[in-house]
Amino acid sequence: MNSPATRGRNGSKKRKASRGRSRLRLPMRYLLPTTLLVALLAMLMLRGYVHSEILADHRVRDADYHNEVPKDVRAGGPVIDARSGDAKTLRIPDRRIVLTFDDGPDPVWTPKVLDKLREYDAHGVFFVTGNMAARHPELVERMVEEGHEIGLHTFNHPDLSYQSTERIDWELSQNQLALAGAAGIRTSIFRPPYSSFSYAMDNKSWPVTEYIGSRGYLTVVNDTDSEDWKRPGVRAIVERATPKGDQGAIILMHDSGGDRSQTVAALDTLLPDLKERGYTFTRLTTALDAPSAHTPVTGFALWKGKAFVSAVAVSERLTGVLVVGLAVIGVLVLARFGLMLLLSFLHARKVRRRDFSWGEPLSRPVSVLVPAYNERECIEATVRSLVASEHPIEIIVIDDGSTDGTADLVEAMRLPRVRVVRQQNAGKPAALNNGIRHARYDIVVMMDGDTVFEPATVRELVQPFADPRVGAVAGNAKVGNRDSLIGAWQHIEYVMGFNLDRRMYDVLGCMPTIPGAVGAFRREALERVGGMSEDTLAEDTDVTMALHRDGWRVVYAENARAWTEAPESVQQLWSQRYRWSYGTMQAIWKHRRAVVERGPSGRFGRVGLPFVSLFMVVAPLLAPLIDVFLLYGLVFGPTGKTVAAWFGVLVVQAVCAAYAFRLDKERMTHLLSLPLQQILYRQLMYVVLLQSWITALTGGRLRWQKLRRTGAVEAPGGSSAQRPRRAAVDAGAVHGDSTDRRPYV
């Protein structure tokens, strides 16, 4: 893996699309992280589904016509039996009470109601909604175990008078599914939402009652309404719930839907008072001397219900975890943006003071190493940009076994101060170490074979070495091919996500990566840490952390600009970033012992590693929660607040991006694509990081690969001599065999 600035060299070696065209088809191995994200969204959607946040109840009744309702029904009892086609009604016998509770089960109030019923040895009927039953199956199971009867109250509590028969069937079936999963039963009694008395049946609700009857259900309304939902006070609830004389009654109460403390308190009075008057509190079917409403569920229907309830339980727990994660990422995002703005401001103010100096201007020659593998399309522009350098340099091109004549092309240029070192294909770290051995000078600049330097880049890059404490310097990597949409998005990422970060890490003294595209090292420092290591895919991050642990300062030179070619297809970008993320994790793990060590290593371990881990690994992994909850809010609500919160985060990001562009003197017009970048590009980065985590946790290994290059990048204002000579490259050409060690990923 290469650092954020080298990163134009990474990715898949194959490209069948023409330049500038994004390829959206990804290999099958990328489906696992994508599937995990889809599963996460599915769990959230299930959570919203069972919380009545879609298809929620909306009371829309506006008619009161009842000429189509049979008079016997309107003048009859609260139990309507339309199962045989000819509707009839039933009343509760004298001195019998059927206490009914709607809208539950509620985790707070239903247990209190059940406790009161058990205390007074009373039974009742609970008309449960499917969404609540699925969320609290243990309460439904308790109701059945304690001898109460269960009735359907739909799944999402809509007004069925304005629903289609398909929707009614769905509400009933889902309600039954929740009961099967919670208590292993079906029920044959039903109460429509918003129902009241038989005489209130109108032309809208009566057809629903007839249809419900045709489906095999008894429709149960009430003849005594406690109106506890109004919270009129305990005394008023008791008075309204008490039947006249010795008449039997179906009493309507609620165990959910708000504060039910008055309902619970009213039971303490109502139950003993009516028992003293000789009333019995019983189930509906018992009061009517009818068979039980419950039927056991077995076989596939039972397992289907249990699977549904289990999935709901998982979604509930997962949502709780995600909410905590969202709070954490919210704090991290705001903290990171705050630190970036503050510390970047301090860094800019420090290095841009007129009296700022690293020491005596450094003018002695330095060595520039250019490792190259099959860079024929780019290498000429790279070398010519170095020859035009304002600082005295020697140029060493290390050809790592190229098969396209890269070394021959450089030698044929016959440019002064340019040497070619050939080696068998051994990888980028080996090529750099070989270049260090051939270097004549004590400061070594490293760049990529597809990168172009400005004339002042080397001079700006090496000035911090006037401070003897500085062991390495990070330059300012720029995306050269920013004319495509993917290029523009990477341009924003480089300016804001990488260079603004480097300013912050410079102030904190824990710069995690010297970009391979534009970095410089003190030769002594490299020798002390053993040179470039092959232990990880992120040799640049690895060596930077090693320098910190050895006590060297690592700083950022904002004016040392280099122009690199970024990936131009989705697949190449995926491959590149996959290796960055994985390599960074490898480097963090390799240097983990720094956390418990003393001295400079311990300082980096207890300051640098936590910062890098938090902001480069953990925070990006949790960041998708912002977008996940945005989608959740758009679907389930509250939409307005959700959109406002997301735009708030976008505004904060835009402020940081604008400040970063101002510091780098970049045109603000590129920020017009920032919202689209947040919607599309960032999602791709999330999935890439997730796949890197999966690879790390499963012990997977990655192979070196190389991007196909076009040689289209040049420094702004570059002369014709600096411009690359385009090679006629077939769009589908493959550079090397995939089993070779690829030096530049």
Compact description:
The protein is built from 23 helices and 20 strands. The protein has 745 residues and is α/β, with parallel strands linked by helices. Pfam families: Glyco_tranf_2_3, Polysacc_deac_1.
Give the topology:
Elements: H1 31-50, H2 71-74, E1 79-81, E2 88-90, E3 96-102, H3 109-119, E4 124-128, H4 130-135, H5 137-145, E5 149-152, H6 165-183, E6 185-187, E7 189-190, H7 205-214, E8 218-220, E9 224-225, H8 234-241, E10 249-254, H9 261-276, E11 280-281, H10 284-287, E12 294-296, H11 299-351, E13 366-372, H12 379-387, E14 393-400, H13 406-413, E15 418-423, H14 428-438, E16 443-447, E17 452-453, H15 457-462, E18 470-479, H16 485-508, E19 518-522, H17 523-528, H18 539-549, E20 553-564, H19 570-590, H20 599-622, H21 624-636, H22 639-663, H23 674-698
Parallel strand pairs: 3-4, 3-10, 3-11, 4-5, 7-8, 9-10, 13-14, 13-16, 14-15, 18-20
Antiparallel strand pairs: 1-2, 1-8, 6-12, 16-19, 17-20, 18-19
Helix pairs in contact: 1-11, 1-21, 1-23, 3-9, 5-6, 6-11, 8-9, 11-16, 11-20, 11-22, 16-22, 18-19, 18-20, 19-20, 19-23, 21-22
